[in-house]
Amino acid sequence: MYPPHCPVCDRIYADGICADCRKKLFVITEDFCMKCGKPLEDTQREYCPDCSRKRHVFRQNRALLSYRGPVKLSLYRMKYANRRDYAEIYGREMAVRLGPWIRRCKITRIIPVPLHRKRQRKRGYNQAAVIAKSMGRELHLPVDEKTLFRVRNTVPQKALNDRERRRNLSGAFQIRKGAELPEGECVLLIDDIYTTGSTLDAAALCLRQSTKCTVYAASIAIGG
Predict the structure, then answer these.
(1) Which domains does the chain have, with CATH numbers?
(2) Rounded to an integer, what distance in angstroms lies between the CA atom of residue 87 and that of residue 192?
(3) Which of 5, 169, 190, 192 is packed most tightly, with the most Cβ within 10 A?
(4) Which family does it belong to (predicted)?
(5) What is the distance between the alpha carbons of residues 53 and 190, in angstroms, rounded to a whole number?
(6) Statement: the pTM of the whole predicted model exceeds 0.90
(7) Nearest Cα to 206, choosing from 58, 62, 53?
(8) Is there a contact between 188 and 111 (Cβ–Cβ < 8 Å)?
């Protein structure tokens, strides 16, 4: 009754992203910032201009796609049109493309960036959690939705500049009492879109201060 669809063109397709749509996506394969994973215009540089100016809390972020072209509409439908099936497909794609890097990082668990309960109730699901579970199945890694939770229902980030984003997210996350991670854990934070890294930094800071773990991150798409 509900056949699978390509998450880009939304046509019925049984095997993830169809061949035509793959040609339209900007897959990040090389020449990316070694901190945030953004594609580099100057291939001689190690870091993008943003990461050259500021420090991030997470150790490294990697992204599957550049946030250009048809992926923008695809991710909008994933978040706001109840297309959680898209998140499962993108999670599998991330596991395949980023799997070797994830294994090199010695990740011990995957943690999706949590939504506030009010926003999750309204949307019906957390797209980052769907992505994380799809990746966990492919990579045989546990997905932890209990340790980190969101205590403040922050305003949407898209209309804010970088400084406003950091202020908006200050104190937004907490570690659930009694859910501290064992020493030596290496965590992979999952979000759908990386813009400035403020959300991942806020979540990573909470994890590092409370649990002393090492934090990496990954996202479907990254701006730039």
Answers:
(1) 19-222 (3.40.50)
(2) 9
(3) 190
(4) Belongs to the ComF/GntX family.
(5) 24
(6) yes
(7) 58
(8) yes
